[in-house]
Write a structure and sequence with these properties.
The complex is a heterodimer of chains A (139) and B (286).
Chain A lengths: L4 E11 L2 H17 L4 H22 L2 E9 L4 E9 L7 H4 L13 H8 L2 E6 L5 E8 L2
Helix pairs in contact in A: 1-2, 2-4
Chain B lengths: L4 H13 L1 H16 L5 H20 L11 H16 L4 H21 L5 H41 L4 E4 L2 E7 L4 H18 L3 E8 L5 H16 L3 E5 L3 H10 L7 E2 L3 H12 L13
Helix pairs in contact in B: 1-3, 2-3, 2-5, 3-4, 4-6, 5-6, 7-8
The chains are: A alpha+beta (139), B alpha/beta (286).
């Protein structure tokens, strides 16, 4: 992961219901606007956050989302951490395959979210929960 | 803190022997707080009703608000707070209306030379505090049910199905498309398709801020359901940023027709049905 300096303090949102997923979207949009992302990039990062927040809710029963503005010296960006203490992902490669789902969705959430952002870091193991960090830089 | 039988008796006597003085002072204090937002007659009526219920409860020997004897009083308080909540008074204003009774009581008790008056007043105060808190709770409950009602109404309001043309209906989606709303939209659309026997439906997503896989799945299911009923769906209102996001996500709409705007979608349908449409050149005005 590229190092970045946080600007301001990060905002946290717990995810425990569908309404919280909407709150995450709104929070991410606000911060993305503050980080001066273009409209397309705002929409992309909001959509990625929506997917990952819903995954947290559906597969782990809830978790927390932390949103912050980062700066690598040249560009500003938005970094979002999704953390849960759910069952974790046993086969990461399979989970990242387009169309694979165990939850009745389209099976594009995790893989699609990875394509929507610039940096995608996932740490997970069975029984250890899941931590996903995504970053989107302004152009 | 519960009132002793003695204390409730004394309070009942005190309240009923100074009816006019107490209700008048009480109404005065409340009127001062509400700044004329409630008519004087209405205010007096409320205060008198509350006064009557309170005296009734105390006559029966009510020790506190939770007791069996206070059931009538609780009903009056709940009714009062419901009314205030619906008319837009704040929770503080509603509870203060009850607390104002203390002021009125103090006025009559000051004139009364009884050795136990401080002790009595503290005991009465505790009862009035209970009453105030009770109104506060009723108020909050009413507000919560109002909010729930509004959320439901909003759900209904925000999913209209409109007839655009003979045989063409449209659903303009606005806001977040969660599972509950998707369900309402699908039901409405299918119902309208039957009622109007329309072969075409346009789902317009101009007002949907983000299309993620869940939203896409809801739309796809609606389209499939409409197709099963013999209607063709067109998705319109796909803005550039949404189109790029959908591509990156990997969502495929298959053979479903998609258009950038509602106008394009309507033109597309009309062409399919053979209705003549001419794309008029915009008139130049110099």
């Amino acid at each position: 992961m590229t190092s970045g300096v946080d600007l301001g303090r990060p905002h946290t949102q717990t995810v425990g219901s569908d309404e919280d997923v909407v709150r995450v979207r709104q929070l991410v949009r606000t911060v993305a606007v503050a980080a001066k992302l273009s409209l397309v990039d705002q929409t992309k990062v909001v959509t990625a956050a929506s997917e990952l927040a819903r995954n947290t809710l559906v597969y782990a029963g809830g978790g927390t989302v932390e949103v912050s503005i980062v700066d690598n010296g040249r560009r500003q960006g938005i970094r979002i951490l999704f953390a849960d203490s759910g069952p974790g992902i046993a086969d990461l490669e399979l989970a990242l395959t387009d169309g694979y789902t165990t939850g009745g969705g389209l099976g594009l959430g995790l893989s699609g979210a990875r394509r929507l952002v610039d940096e995608f870091d996932i740490r997970t193991a069975p029984g250890q929960g899941t931590r996903i960090t995504i970053t989107k830089w302004s152009r | 803190m519960a009132l002793s039988a003695d204390e409730s008796g004394r309070l009942a006597v005190l309240l009923s022997s100074h009816v006019d003085q107490i209700t008048q002072r009480w109404a005065e204090v409340v009127a001062g707080q509400l700044h004329g937002r409630l008519s004087q007659a209405e205010l007096i009526r409320q205060v008198q009703e509350l006064h009557r219920a309170l005296v009734d409860a105390l006559d029966k020997g009510a020790a506190d608000l939770a007791s069996e004897e206070s059931v009538e009083l609780r009903a009056v308080l709940a009714e009062l707070s419901r009314g205030q909540a619906r008319e837009g008074f704040s929770a503080t204003e509603t509870a203060s209306g009850v607390f104002a009774l203390k002021d009125a009581l103090l006025t009559v008790m000051e004139a009364d030379h009884n050795a136990d008056k401080l002790r009595d007043f503290v005991a009465f105060s505790a009862l009035i505090d209970q009453m105030g808190l009770f109104t506060f709770e009723s108020y909050v409950r009413t507000r919560e049910s109002l909010i729930a009602d509004q959320a439901e109404q909003l759900l209904e309001l925000s999913t209209p199905v409109v007839k655009l043309w003979e045989g063409v209906v449209a659903v303009p989606l606005v806001g977040t498309l969660d599972s509950a709303r998707a369900q309402v939209v699908m039901e409405r659309l299918l119902q309208t398709l039957v009622e109007t026997s329309s072969p075409y439906a346009i789902i317009d997503i101009t007002g949907v801020p983000a299309v993620d896989t869940q939203v896409a799945q809801h739309i796809l299911k609606t389209v499939v359901a409409a197709r099963l009923m013999g209607a063709d769906c067109i998705i319109s209102g796909i803005r550039p940023q949404i189109a790029q996001t959908i591509v990156a996500l990997g969502i495929e709409f298959g053979d479903i027709a998609t258009k950038a705007s509602l106008a394009d979608a309507l033109r597309h349908v009309l062409r399919l049905t053979g209705v003549e449409t001419s794309r008029r050149q915009p008139r130049r005005e110099l």
